[in-house]
Amino acid sequence: MRNDDCNRHLNWRSRAIVTYAEYFQKRSELTMKDQLRPLLPLIAAGVVGCASASAPTPGPQTAVPPPTGSFEVLGRGPITETHASDLWVFEGVDGRDYAYVGTWGACDGCYGDRMYAWDVTNPQDPVLTDSVVVDARVVNDVKVNEAGTVAVITREGASNRRNGIVLLDLSEPAHPTVASEYWETLTGGVHNTFIDGDFVYAVHNGTADLHIIDISNLKAPAEIGRWGIPIHPAKYLHDVWVEDGLAYVSYWDDGLVILDVGNGIEGGTPEEPVFVSQYRYQTSFQGDDYGNTHTAVPYTNAAGNRYIFVGDEIFPEGFDVEQRDQHPGGYVHVVDISDLQNPVEVAKYEVPGAGVHNLWLEDDILYAAYYNAGLRAVDVSGDLQGDLRLQDREIAVLLTEDEDAFIETRTFTWGPQLYKGTVFASDHNSGLWVARLPPNAKPPVRTEGVGNNGS
Prior knowledge:
Elements: H1 3-6, H2 20-33, H3 40-44, E1 72-78, E2 83-91, E3 97-104, E4 114-119, E5 127-133, E6 142-144, E7 150-154, E8 165-169, E9 177-182, E10 190-196, E11 199-204, E12 210-214, E13 222-227, E14 239-243, E15 246-250, E16 256-260, E17 274-279, E18 283-285, E19 288-290, E20 293-300, E21 306-312, E22 332-336, E23 344-349, E24 359-362, E25 365-369, E26 375-379, E27 386-387, E28 394-398, E29 413-419, E30 422-427, E31 431-436
Parallel strand pairs: 23-27
Antiparallel strand pairs: 1-31, 2-3, 3-4, 4-5, 6-7, 7-8, 8-9, 10-11, 11-12, 12-13, 14-15, 15-16, 16-17, 18-19, 20-21, 21-22, 22-23, 24-25, 25-26, 26-28, 29-30, 30-31
């Protein structure tokens, strides 16, 4: 699909949103009821329903604290006809820079069957170059390999029940093409992935296991490994991050699980991952306790302190993204992994009145897509202890909202990425944002602890 098709502005304004609480609850129940049943029949049958007048009202809301500093907005890539999902920014084989953004269509009047491609070589003027359309209700995740030659997009809710992943050939990155797809063991839908070398680590909704797919032959991907916790009624897997031969797996109520997939600490490989450790916790929100481990990103700061930044995702029953008096919950747990086999939580970053989503860490700065609290930059240098928000560590905030959007002036920041000194973010309601920190925003070098203020 070329520029003329990409630039359609359908300007949908009358629609009934599927409640997020229902979407995630029913997707979790899918793994309980039928380990291989695709998501689409549930949606088609109305099991994942739309918000109605009888939907429960979420609990009391808390105001988000005012911003402490501001990003400078450089450019925009609006998505006005549907919801946006995750993004990935990279340098193409042609030497130009690109941002790929997925779409989320689990609502009435929107679609989630495509990935958009922007040329962002000039961050102040993103140019929409193309899109890739697949059979899906949700393209939740987009990843690109280190060489910039292959991308993977996820599929959920395919009409033919062949969900899984789609591999894209990036020989011409402005106009990516479908190279192949893999669905044979992933028919229940894939929500997130991570590319490490010749392997795609895929989070399968059906089995709630981590499936490892060999993509060394782009035309003939094949599953070569699988790992999962024992089956139980609430088993649910959400995300994975792979680094230095370790897979950091977000297992919802079963917390963070660390696997050796080639590091050597336990002799694991991609074909036979081996358990290293687990960290479980509960987060209180509006009177209830949740596990809801949503994402986990490892990071070693300049002081040599080794952490995993773990985010929750909590949507109260009846939550509707269009209702401005409602908000999700969850925050960032900072887990010390100096002893990898004994993770210990030492700090947190929590914004009252908001819920965190995806994370990026680089140059001792945490970039957090904090849903209704926007894109946030936080100093994570030195020894981290206690409540980071109360320690003057917030650097900048950007509310990713304007009128050029699917839902106007309603911040719901989805995913961040720092790339070549520029911060890119996707907003669920408005699409692609390009920004930068103020010149004086670099955090100071901290080598000592800052105490337990507000912990």
